[in-house]
Amino acid sequence: MTTETKTDLGRIVVTEDLIATIAGYAAVENYGIVGMCAQSAGDSFVELFGRDNLKKGVKITPTDMNEVDVDLYVTLQYGVSLPAVAANVKDNVKYRLEEMVGVAVRNVNIHVESIRVQ
């Protein structure tokens, strides 16, 4: 999925990778999120070489109404309130994507893959 905006100066094209990267940034900046979990072999392969993959653990699904669904696969810090962290992450990801990129977000789904003691 790519979105395109035309202006007087030209056009702006936003790719699905950029949307996933911004969603990953927005997720990990919340208290209680320790990290993102790899969901594909490609993400795991990139981790082996120590490269930073900011879209790791993010799945973007375009809908038929020019909106996106965002699935986040996260690792939580032990002892935090799951509902509180999930609500904060959902609000932050939705806000960042809509304000920075102009993409309408229909759903943000949080999948807790693991818990880590800090």
Write a structural description.
With 118 residues, the protein is α+β, with helices and mostly antiparallel strands. It is built from 3 helices and 6 strands. Strands 3, 4, 5 and 6 form a 4-stranded mixed beta sheet that branches. A two-stranded antiparallel sheet has the order 1-2. The longest helix is centred in the last third of the chain and has 20 residues. The N and C termini lie far apart (37 Å). 25% of the residues are buried.
Top keywords for this entry?
alpha+beta, two-stranded antiparallel sheet, 3 helices, 6 strands
Q: What are the segments in which pLDDT stays under 50 over at least 5 consecutive residues?
A: none
Major sheet details: 4 strands, mixed
In total, the number of strands is 6
Relative helix content: 25-40%
Question: Outline of this structure?
Answer:
This protein is an alpha+beta fold.
Reconstruct the topology from this structure.
Layout (H helix, E strand, L loop, with lengths): L2 E5 L2 E5 L1 H13 L4 E4 L4 H8 L9 E5 L4 E11 L4 H20 L2 E13 L2
Parallel strand pairs: 5-6
Antiparallel strand pairs: 1-2, 3-5, 4-5
Helix pairs in contact: 1-3
